[in-house]
Amino acid sequence: MARSVVVPGAGEVVDLDARLCRVRIELPGHSIGHLNSYVYRTDDGLLVIDVPWDAPGSAENYLRLLEAAGLDVHAIRTILVTHYHSDHWGIAGRLRALSGARVGLHRLDAWNLVRRFDDGRGFARDLRAWLELVGADDRATDIAMHQAFDLVGQDGHLRPDFLIADGELLHQGGVSLRALHTPGHTSGHLAFADLERSVVFTGDHIYRRRRGTASTRLYSSADPMGDFWRANDALLALAPRTVHPAHDESFDDLPARLDELRGVAARHLEQILWIADRPRSAADIAREVPRSRAWHELGDTAVLTAIGETHAYLIDAAARGLVRRIPGPPELWVRDDAGPEHPGDAHDPRAA
Predict the structure, then answer these.
(1) What DSSP state is assigned to residue 43?
(2) Is the Cβ–Cβ distance between 4 and 23 less than 8 Å?
(3) Cβ proximity of 351 and 332 under 8 Å
(4) Bridge partners, residue 4, by sequence
């Protein structure tokens, strides 16, 4: 039975095998509520995949968890970052100062970090332009601007010590990981595959229960949804036994999970196409997509996620000839009923 150490108010550490453990740290105020940080005990110190944001208490709680599990923070040699969102790297700068660890991430997300934190005025300008492009209303705009600048203090002064390329093999003390570029959630998102153990660490690319994470936000790739599915082909080719995401639980059957997500995506796209019966912005369409809670009941992060996800679906649908894009801002989208997969006279999928 796997050893588990619980630290009240901080989280839990679970041994996944003799060398690998999962450090689940609680993140109060986070939409999911925790981060899974993975730690290898290598022959040359610790190798870490993702660390929590730099909110008050996060660094202290992470150190408490390491200590409770007998992991010496000063032994951290490498921190691999799956992507540039702050809940995956926020305290990396602090850990580097304590241990001398080297921090690595993909070059595209390294550039996103520079744009995000080095030029506040430029970032604010770019963010407002994206919000105007998708047709965000006053509430969504206020949410995005407040969230963006609330995170500035969580920068943690991170600049990578090395950049990680797609397909690169990373070695440390008897552990070897292959990096895979898995864009969709961010343009420089990475997964890391341990081929010896037949496991893959997927960051925010894919979860056990939550819907797919492809979304447009500022500095996303040109076609996040298309990129998401192409990256899944690369993950499937590895045939991993177990998937370890950065949030949620680990799971074993990647093909079955992707089949489930394909069904979800097909139904979601059908709903979006039905709503786009006349020119509308991505934000307007997102508001009408059926969900378990009314639009006004959604939390702040859920609002932005819904808009970004809908925009990603529309971009992919346009590439497939299902909708037409009318330049903006705001950018408008309308169903192309002459397209190869239009809903035609089918029943309204929103009633399903």
Answers:
(1) B
(2) no
(3) no
(4) 14
Averaged confidence pLDDT in the chain: 91
| Lookup result for tokens 């009408």 | 288
What one-letter code names the amino acid at 321?
Answer: G
3-state DSSP assignment of residue 131: helix
Structure tokens at 301: 């992060």
Q: Return the ∠ at Cα 104 (arms to 103 and 110), rounded to 5°.
A: 110
Closest among 198, 222, 224 to 213, alpha carbons compared: 224
Pairing of strands 323-326, 332-335: antiparallel
Q: Say how far apart CA 13 and CA 232 lie, in whole Å.
A: 29
pLDDT of 348? 45
DSSP 205: S
Among the listed residues 304, 297, 313, 310, the one whose alpha carbon sits nearest the alpha carbon of residue 148? 304
Domains in the chain, start-ordered, CATH in brackets? 4-111+156-259 (3.60.15.10), 273-351 (1.10.10.10)
For residue 115 the two structure tokens come to 């744009």
Strand partners, 34: 26
Sequence letter at residue 80: L
Token pair for residue 26? 């609680």
CA separation (Å) from 15 to 2, 33, 189, 258, 276? 5, 21, 26, 27, 48
Among residues 126, 114, 237, 120, the alpha carbon closest in space to that of 178 is found at 237
* Confidence band, pLDDT 50/70/90 cuts, at residue 200: very high
